[in-house]
Design a protein that fits this description.
By secondary structure, this protein is mainly beta. Helices cover 9% and strands 43% of the residues.
Length: 226
């Protein structure tokens, strides 16, 4: 008898509900909290090596393609990748290789990484090419800006460079090709509000910065200061 002890029959409505639960559970999340655990390990919040990694981790992209040799992602000067929710606030490390379409001496402004609310001054992080300089800018909750600017006029289009930037415990550091380029300090806290977006290779609409116009390889965001 259906529903009785030892009965194996599952009514159609129950079965349909179970199928729906199974289906929804198999779908990727539409919004990823980049502070949540990551398959790569507890410290890794995000890892992007190919275009498929973007949607799998809840991201959206515009004018982004796989690199010609399959190594990395190519972001045009109108391109960007957006992850909708960056929530970690205490410390972090961003690392990647970059093969630019521009020379370091070109007077262009290109966004590489942005973590900030639109039109927000405090609690923001920016890694950009600004004219002759690679700049790593962190602004704490007091509104004080800690800026590192490193001249990159020796960078050549088509060559690859390694970049790592970190923050935490009141200090920022910028490494280029595995060497510490410079450091700075901040006195407040970094408190990115829940829902703060993270952009890779682009910025909010209306920004003065163009897209990266470069190929980024092995992009990794960690939740610790390395």
């Amino acid at each position: 008898m259906a529903g009785g002890e030892g009965g194996a029959h599952i009514g159609p409505k129950v079965q349909q509900k179970q199928n729906l639960v199974d289906f929804l559970g198999s779908r990727p999340a539409t919004e990823t909290d980049l502070a949540a655990p990551h398959p790569e390990g507890d410290d890794v919040a995000l890892k992007v090596e190919k275009t498929d990694d973007i949607s799998k981790q809840g991201g959206h992209d515009q004018d982004v393609t796989q690199a010609d040799n399959g190594d990395g992602i190519k972001i045009s000067d109108t391109g960007k990748i957006q992850f909708p929710n960056y929530a970690n606030s205490e410390a972090g490390t961003i690392s990647f290789s970059i093969k630019p379409e521009w020379n370091g001496s070109d007077q262009t402004d290109n966004a590489l990484v942005e973590i900030r609310g639109q039109n927000e001054w405090s609690n923001r992080m920016e890694l950009v090419k600004n004219g002759d300089f690679l700049r790593f800018i962190v602004t704490d909750n007091t509104g004080k800006e800690a800026d590192i600017s490193v001249r990159i006029t020796d960078w050549q289009a088509g060559n690859s460079y390694d970049v790592k930037a970190n923050w935490g415990q009141g200090q920022t550091q910028l490494f280029v090709d595995n060497r510490l380029a410079s450091s700075n300090q901040y006195t407040g806290q970094i408190e990115f509000p829940q829902g703060t977006p993270m952009y890779i290779g682009g910025d909010h609409p209306g920004s003065n910065y163009a897209g990266a116009n470069a190929t980024l390889g092995n992009f990794t965001l960690s939740k610790t200061k390395d």
